[in-house]
Amino acid sequence: MVMTPTTEEVWAWLGEVPDPEIPVISLTDLGIIRAVAWEGDTLAVTVTPTYSGCPATSLINFEIERALRAHGVEKIALKRQISPPWTTDWLTEEGRAKLEAYGIAPPQPAGGPDKCPHCGSTELERISQFGSTPCKAQWRCKDCLEPFDYFKCI
Amino acid sequence: MDEALFEFCLRMGDNTLVLGHRVSEWCGHAPVLEEDIALANTALDLIGQTQFWLGLAGEVEGKGRDADALAFRRDAWDFRSVLLVEQPNGDFGQTIMRQFLFDAWQSIILDRLKGSSDDRVKAIAEKASKEVAYHFERSRDTVVGLGDGTAESHARMQAALDKLYPYVGELFGADATDREIAERGIAPLPADLREAYDALIAEAMVEATLTLPDSRWTHTGGRDGSRHSEHLGHLLTEMQWLQRAYPDARW
User: I need a surface site. Which of A28, B116, B211, B250 has the fewest CB within 10 A?
Assistant: First the structure.
């Protein structure tokens, strides 16, 4: 007889699923998993998209399903929830630290990075409001001259 | 079926779909890499918003059509997008001016839709308005930069404004659908947004050193589907080609 995993266990498993576009952080670090609940013998996972058109959305759902199946969960219901809309306030502290260590400046309420993720300088300039994924913009450090990604604050 | 709500969702979703496709035509062709990326990201947001609006339209219609079916299997006369968004890209300045004129309107209406009596409309507006605020900031900055730029960029931006402004008025039209939707508290009456829009545009034009045309005369026929411009059919031919050639194709 297989024990039904608790929702805490499920959260921990989801915490090991990397974001497909920024694999250094997990789906729970990103704050897009909004709820995990058992509905009878079905595990319901509620996911919110970061950006409306984020192409990683379907891959994320696939990765969630794959991870849960690997842990023996058979009946899975993935729910999409768009309200309240995702905000970078939902990034975990751990997620922010991992982004910075990876070279992506974490979001700041001021609307731009507070320091260069490579050398720590505060002499920065914006190159473009957009970047390689919908959630990032391009900035450059005027001291070490390295360009870097900034995780947009929304 | 709730005809008025269906129509309203098509008007919102077809605008973002057609403009999203137009903007995506720049992919790989923009003047600099950063702009290429910015345009592609904007198009992506718009197409994402389309999935919400047309998804809701299909749900309201209740005939089993999803967002893809509505996007790829309707012909020009069933589209409810305004004429502004189907206008060709022209040069980069014209593309950015069209984006600015649309972003300004979208930022205002989405903000108002956050108070919609329909929870589904409200949820889409809450999500999309964050993205649109970002689009507007960029298109406004770029219009100001190019308008108040070199003699060449100024002339091109003024020409773009003169060309596109006669399409702006259609965004504020009012027909039986608009009145019903407004009475039910789903969305504001489009005409009621004009004052806020004019103020937003006027302020940016001063900074951009551009002159708004005097006349408010406007082309119409897109948002009620009565007379689209010739451009929409060509756009759909390209956008819908795969689903027309290979119906139900999946990969």
Answer: B250
